[in-house]
Amino acid sequence: MSKDNEILEEFTSKEYEHGWSVEYEADEAPLGLNEGIIRWISAKKDEPQWLLDWRLKAYKTWENMVEPEWANIHYPKIDLQSTRYYSAPKQTKKTDSLDEIDPELLKIYDRLGISLNEQKRLQGIAVDAVLDSVSVGTTFKDTLSKHGIIFCSFSEAVKEYPELIKKYLGSVVPITDNYYAALNSAVFSDGSFCYIPKGVRCPMELSTYFRINAANTGQFERTLIVAEEGSYVSYLEGCTAPQRDENQLHAAVVEIYAAKNAEVKYSTVQNWYPGDKNGKGGIYNFVTKRGICAGDYSKISWTQVETGSAITWKYPSCILKGDYSIGEFYSVAVTNNYQQADTGTKMIHIGKNTRSRIVSKGISAGHSHNSYRGQVQVMKRATNARNFSQCDSLLMGSTCGAHTFPYIDISNSSAQVEHEATTSKIGEDQIFYCNQRGIATEDAVALIVNGYAKEVLNQLPMEFAVEAQKLLALTLEGSVG
Amino acid sequence: MTTTTKHSDSLTSTLLEAYKDIQFTLAASSLRNEGRDLLQRIGLPANKEEEYKFTPISKKIEGTITRFSHAIPSENVDQKTVDENLIPGLDCHLLVFNNGKLERNLSNFDTSVLSLISFADLLEGKMEEQVGKIAKANKDPFVALNQVAFQEGTWLEVAAKTVLEKPVYILQLIQATQEGETVHPRSYIQVGKNAKVTFIENVVSLDDSPYFLNGVTEINVGENSQVDFYRVQDESKAALEVNNTEINVPRDATFNSAVISLQGKMIRNNLSINLLDSNSLGNMYGIYMLNGQTHVDNHTNVDHTMPHAESNELYKGILADHSRGVFNGKIFVRQDAQKTNAFQQNNNILLSEDAVVNTKPQLEIWADDVKCSHGCTTGQLDEEALFYLRSRGISKENSRGMLLYAFAGEVLEKINNENFRDYCIGLIQQRLGTHYA
């Protein structure tokens, strides 16, 4: 046991890899939130009047909302008035090529292992890098535009494709949706916009990389993905933040619209700074993600690997409106030390013959809490809806908690809905089996957990799967017992 | 999102007003005051409150009952009524309650093995020390309401080392003689060490007038004892009921529960088992077979506090017409409760387009060396099984009946008392013949 403790000790004292920050000149909004700040942000970004009106409307709605308290997470109240709502690297000129971007900024992404320059040379992923509040650069624009694909920062999209933004902004996550979505709608600074025209299969993975750098800053980005009829896109999202003692808020909104026969695959590897081993600092990750399968035979698939954040509060959801549409949710959530995660999904079956599948794997260690909260709702006219949910929890150590809160609401008699969940620890017999074949306990745990999470990791695109596996191995090191 | 507006504030104050003049014995006064204070503070559940999200019982009560007063014991209760509601072939200790008050003349039990005392006659101290300590008023506002308004309060005791061969049959006869009366039965069951006893409770509505029944039952099981507690709810179509039952299960003891819910307007059952020590076992079984507008909500909670305890749970629902079934099961495993085995399952069959099921099987686990699982399904009868039966010349109605009966049978076979099991089978078969054909 003492050895286990040693190993545990060693692991828990492990430093967060991406905990550094970089000094650069930044354009910052004053602390606090009021109508003036919203106008300030809007003016800063040179936004059209309709967007400012939309923001103000969201702000008015938000003012009348109360902070939700139903989630199984505990944290001191966030002082939204001492948060900064806008921080941008001082570089006002919009760049056409990466060469013009401040090398300091590019270095940040180099250190993260996302070299924007390198991306240009290597075939592979188109990246939109978002630093604090603004997008600093998007790669592969030319290749994408040949296919008619729009992939750019949100601010750019507002200027160049206002009619698309007008049509889809807030159509999936309305400003009235919830407290943090309303807040985001009022103050969102930047984000990514992606439009796949009819019948186009996006030739490469699209990716956004979010990085919070400045202190006292909340990150409020907004992602909007529109997949027209018969199109396909695979979208990746990654995130990191510097190590700081205070908690920082990240309240993003992701909206996905899938038309008839369209397919969108959205993968996240979330690795925000989780706080130190005593639970000090870390990111509050309060995110609203939702997709609508608006057309028949459309499909939206969410895959997430959640290893970071002091608190994760997110429920990527699918509204299955089109007949024969499909929603999927694959999740691995790992919590350690004093991390808390309340995550899951919502599958709303509206159309006929709609199908959904939920696979959620929770792993908790240290003093952490890991909750799965999901809803499967079958509306009255959703004939022959089919759902299968599986949520398993793995506990490591006796001071962590795993919780499951599934809501299953069925109003149609032809629906077939199954839910199963288990909670367990790694079996002694499993470890013993590995040991007697010469595999060290440590490796055996990694082996078993990797097998446990495999169903989800398999859903990730290649590049992310590698990163996710590394993250998982790091989190698991020494957690035996 | 939780809202802080309490639409049922007015109902809470109406009820408190109606019960302000209750004559109570000294012993019960602290209990009533505590309930009153609590209720004033928390109020009855508002419309969208999480625990009562799918069962807006406060609203239903407000909409149905216009005058709140205690139901007085009905005059229509005689030997004939009792005889009509006995379980065929069941040799039992009979306790008859008339609107929550014990009818000594109609009851028939052996006082040498079963002692029955009204709260008012309890020895000093017992009341303060035990009543309200298992089913705590702060857990559910309806427990608080019962604490304010219970009429008599019954203390049932089975001495240590007593094995009751005959089950205790509790016949709850309810009739609101004036429109909208309320009944708040309260009982405390104390079972000594190394004892064994079976309780069967049957709630019978004497007519179709609406009533609100708000019962609280506390059971304190002794070490190495076994208590079986069965309940049938086949009430009038206007019946509103909230039922709180909470059980303490100590070392080496076993508690078995089965709830058969068949009819009522809106019934809410809160069943909580506290497994307090090693080798304790809690089993919860239930069937809700509903039609018409019936709404039944089963909330169960198992609290594993110590290592090496086990709990099993199986609830099955068959829902026809406009009925609604709600299931909320919670397994709570505390940090010390290593080596816990906890299983929970909920299966539902929807037979009509308008039936609704809301289920929420929850796990809250704080210990790592446990085996816990839950599963829940909602679906229809297996088409292939139906086809198999039909291909053997069995009519469609009979095939469906056979499959539904087999579905429910898994729960029925958990009932240990043979006569009662046969009685339940009879009730279910009768319904299969009429409502589900």
**H/E element order of chain B:** HHHHEEEHHEEEEEEEEEEEEEEEEEHHH
The first-to-last residue Cα distance of chain B is: 42 Å
* Protein chain pair with the most extensive contact, residues per chain: A-B, 40 and 37 residues
**How far is the N terminus from the C terminus of chain A?**
8 Å
Count structural domains of chain B: 2
Sheet with most strands: strand arrangement of chain A:
4-3-7-9-12-14-17-20-22-24
Work out the helix count of chain B: 9
Largest sheet of chain A: 10 strands, mixed
Figure out the total of helices of chain A. 12
Tell me the total number of β-strands of chain B. 20
Strand sequence of the main sheet of chain B, in spatial order? 2-1-5-8-10-12-14-16-18-20
What proportion strand of chain B?
A: 35-45%
Shape of chain A: globular
Binned strand content of chain A: 25-35%
Fold and architecture overview:
The complex is a heterodimer of chains A (481) and B (437). Chain A is α/β, with parallel strands linked by helices and 481 residues long. Helix content of chain A is 25%, strand content 34%. Chain A has a domain at 340-425. Chain A contains 12 helices and 24 strands. In chain A, 55% of the residues are buried. Mean pLDDT of chain A is 79; it is low at 1-5, 7-13, 91-96 and 118-124. Chain B is 22% helix and 37% strand. Chain B has 9 helices and 20 strands. Chain B has helices spanning 9-18, 26-42, 57-64, 79-84, 126-130, 141-149, 383-391, 396-412, 418-434; strands at residues 93-98, 101-102, 114-118, 154-158, 168-174, 182-183, 186-191, 196-205, 211-220, 226-234, 239-249, 254-263, 266-275, 281-290, 295-304, 310-319, 324-333, 341-350, 356-365, 371-379. The radius of gyration of chain B is 21 Å and the shape is globular. Chain A binds chain B through residues 65-66, 68-70, 178-179, 380, 393, 395-425, and chain B through 1-2, 4, 50, 335, 338, 348, 350-353, 355-380. β23 (401-410) of chain A pairs antiparallel with β19 (356-365) of chain B.
